[in-house]
Write a structure and sequence with these properties.
heterodimer, A: mainly beta, Rubrerythrin, domain 2, 3-stranded antiparallel sheet, B: alpha/beta, Rossmann fold, Dihydrodipicolinate Reductase, domain 2, 2 domains, 7-stranded parallel sheet, 7-stranded mixed sheet, 14 strands, 28% helix
């Protein structure tokens, strides 16, 4: 089972079996989208996430 | 009616059970698998059914309010009297039960001199102050396991302490900089008694900063976290239940967002009712009291301005639950050796 640390909050993320490079996963702690750059070694980058403007 | 005949159950009495905290306490205790509520007292409502004052408890109990001068023997006594009353009768109460949980402010502060300053009168039983443990499991879990006497917690103090605790515990705050806590509170904090300010035409739609500084709960936060350069500002908002504490402070040089994540994650890992909420999507990205109504959870959130070290930490609670009766039951669970979360698992409602 592969692990990777979230670049945003440092949470340890366990990768599900069968994930592929290029796939987007979500950090379970801080909720950012992460793109899997490579699997061996496991590398992830922050993926763009839609900004919300509450207009408040 | 609820079946309350568990062989291992403890008998509980609630003194002063007609207020909001008392009603919430009864809601929790009547459903608690290890507790049998045998008596609820109220002078004002003597002889009335409990559900006539707390309508949500209809079909939950057939108890009537009884005379507080005729206490029945029990294992655990919950005192939900107005501030200033318990301290005059603590000797008598201590003879009625082995374990006491006092929800009032009478035994929250350790220093007797703090009572004239914050509550306007000397304490009537200062020798008892050191016998009580401050009733916030997130700070005193191990002491509570061996305690017989537990104080309640101030709701605003609870929200403030829990918002600050990850930063204090991890030593992240710059100690010589002031800490400001802005607290938005719902109307149930004012209790079941009305006053001109709580009259519906005056209270409805309000955003009212009724205490810019000097609120009594400040003393609890100072005592429990060892902070002295601290201000609490209270603003009443148009909610019935709920409190949101927003802390403003400055972190030490070099502290990063990941350091904050580590501190908050540890706090959540150590405490079953603490959740970290710092979401990137959806509607609920930061802690909000609204979804915590009736729940004992406290939701924590944070952010850091890396330009200047300004940290913002938030804690949302239900003031009647984590800020009063929920914590009281959690303390009882610890004192009596029950599972800490027993009877407190309700996660809240959504939508609400």
């Amino acid at each position: 089972m592969s692990h990777v640390n979230c670049p945003e909050c440092a949470a340890e993320i366990v990768l599900e079996a069968g994930v592929e490079a290029g796939e987007i996963i979500v950090c379970p702690d801080c909720g950012v989208d992460l793109e899997i750059i490579s699997l061996d070694p496991v590398e992830v980058n922050l993926a763009p996430i839609e900004e919300e403007d509450w207009g408040e | 009616m609820h079946s309350q005949n568990s062989l291992n159950s403890v008998r509980a009495v609630v003194v002063g059970g007609s207020g909001y905290a008392g009603g919430e306490l009864l809601r929790l205790l009547l459903s608690h698998p290890q507790v049998e509520v045998i008596q609820v007292t109220s002078r004002r409502h003597l002889g009335e059914f409990v559900y006539q004052v707390h309508p949500n408890l209809r079909k939950q109990t057939g108890l009537k309010f009884s005379d507080p001068d005729l206490l029945q023997p029990c294992e655990v006594l919950f005192l939900a009297l107005p501030h200033g009353q318990t301290q005059h009768k603590i000797e008598e109460f201590s003879e009625a039960a082995k374990y006491i949980v006092d929800l009032s402010a009478d035994f929250r502060l350790r220093d007797p001199q703090a009572y004239p300053r914050w509550y306007g009168a000397p304490h009537a039983a200062p020798e008892w102050l050191s016998r009580f443990v401050y009733g916030l499991p997130e700070l005193h879990r191990e002491e509570l396991r061996d305690a017989r006497f537990v104080s309640g917690v101030g709701c605003n103090a609870t929200a403030s302490i829990l918002a600050l605790q990850p930063l204090v515990q991890a030593g992240l705050l710059e100690n010589d900089r002031p800490v400001i806590v802005e607290i938005k509170v719902g109307s149930s904090e004012g209790g079941a008694e009305g006053n001109p300010g709580s009259h519906h035409p005056e209270r409805s739609g309000v955003i009212r900063t009724f205490s810019p500084f000097g609120h009594r709960h400040t003393a609890e936060v100072m005592q429990e976290l060892g902070l002295t350069n601290l201000s609490l500002t209270m603003t009443s908002v148009d909610l019935v239940r709920g409190a949101l504490a927003t802390v403003h402070g400055v972190v030490k040089p070099g502290v990063t967002l990941k350091d904050l994540w580590k501190a908050y994650r540890e706090m959540a890992a150590q405490n079953p009712f603490i959740r970290v909420l710092r979401e990137q999507r959806g509607v609920y990205r930061v802690p909000e009291p609204k979804i915590l109504a009736g729940s004992n959870f406290a939701d924590l959130g944070f952010d850091l301005d890396t330009e200047n070290g300004h940290v913002v930490s938030m804690c949302a609670i239900d003031n009647l639950m984590k800020g009063a009766s929920g914590s009281a039951v959690q303390c009882m669970n610890l004192m009596l050796g029950f599972e800490e979360t027993l009877g407190l698992e309700f996660p809240g409602l959504h939508p609400i």
